[in-house]
């Protein structure tokens, strides 16, 4: 298959950024620039039974693989379609039982290797960028990252050697580094993690903290829509990271995971930083070193909490949130993003514990400042309205629920497109209230 390209966009060399994507025609807010089927993808283990492994459709009553009883499908067609990938894991999951534990990166990489073997020529996901052209940034990996890659390679050999022929060790080292820099996580409308995938053409886009497009998913297809006007000749930018945080934090994250520093308008002007780190209006304002110490505490607690999530009980986690909110609240305003971060975590724990009132009260505190800190048409804001709306409806607060869901729809009509099945579902939820 020869390169056919995509109408309205082209690959180009972006000054200072290497390759990138630019528009060759005008796009208005909400327009679809392009869509890209996953080159390879994998459903996350915790979403099994809720989603079809092959097409990611979410519904009840999926039928399971008779052999491993772990993979679920819409029907025989989906099961047949998935077999070339599922067979990499089906018998291994039976053989290893409880001890079957490859990371999601390993699972995805195994599928990439299988796909490369099955289809060596350019795929429909690679109209502008090939998987083998992915950046690896091998020389920039720190020790921790290199060790993780080596552990992943070992796990790949351990769990997948029966059905796969691997590239040599050097080839695998490059491949894992490529997957780490270019992999996507597929999320649902509430931003819950559904799986991991590679979308080569989507990976061509460079990053900006004021992105002009957003990536959403329809099953296993990524869709890229304009969230700002884009004129012919302009570069197309997506965001690689959560845009809630101040400039310094964003760039630390970008350097850590993607090995560059951002020079977008927001990173240069830092126009939102002050509001994002807002202090309380106290009669005696805190000393600069007190603020510095609190910032350090905030960044540490975020990291501590991230680690604690894997080992502590929900009530221990909730206590951790409450304590940190108390402590930071002495200096930080409720709209401060570090406060919002911990409130968001607390809301997540409450939802997990089915403490709907607790979740609702955190959500109510989060939503307004979220809308202020995030750019217009933000998935984070839409998903917060959605969670809040669904909570309200569950708590019989009908009109508040409908109002919140409608706000989510307004954003999602731009980010997901008016005909997305998520929007149809939300409209049905509203209809059922009437
Ligand atoms: Zn299916
Ligand atoms: Zn199976
Ligand atoms: Zn930036």
From TrEMBL:
SMART domains attached to this UniProt entry: SET
Example of a GO biological process term: heart contraction
Keyword list, A-Z: Chromatin regulator, Cytoplasm, Metal-binding, Methyltransferase, Nucleus, S-adenosyl-L-methionine, Transcription, Transcription regulation, Transferase, Zinc, Zinc-finger
CDD domains membership: SET_SMYD2
Catalytic reaction list: L-lysyl-[protein] + S-adenosyl-L-methionine = N(6)-methyl-L-lysyl-[protein] + S-adenosyl-L-homocysteine + H(+); L-lysyl(4)-[histone H3] + 3 S-adenosyl-L-methionine = N(6),N(6),N(6)-trimethyl-L-lysyl(4)-[histone H3] + 3 S-adenosyl-L-homocysteine + 3 H(+)
Gene Ontology cellular component list: cytosol; nucleus
Annotated compartments: Cytoplasm, Cytosol; Nucleus
EC number from the UniProt entry: 2.1.1.354
Molecular function as annotated in GO: histone H3K4 trimethyltransferase activity; zinc ion binding
Domain (SET): residue spans on this chain: 7-241
Pfam families attached to this UniProt entry: SET, zf-MYND
Gene3D superfamilies in the record: 1.10.220.160, 1.25.40.970, 6.10.140.2220, SET domain, Tetratricopeptide repeat domain
Residue ranges occupied by any MYND-type domain in the UniProt entry: 52-90
Biological function: Protein-lysine N-methyltransferase that methylates both histones and non-histone proteins, including p53/TP53 and RB1. Specifically trimethylates histone H3 'Lys-4' (H3K4me3) in vivo. The activity requires interaction with HSP90alpha. Shows even higher methyltransferase activity on p53/TP53. Monomethylates 'Lys-370' of p53/TP53, leading to decreased DNA-binding activity and subsequent transcriptional regulation activity of p53/TP53. Monomethylates RB1 at 'Lys-860'.
PANTHER family in the record: HISTONE-LYSINE N-METHYLTRANSFERASE SMYD, N-LYSINE METHYLTRANSFERASE SMYD2
Protein name per UniProt: [histone H3]-lysine(4) N-trimethyltransferase
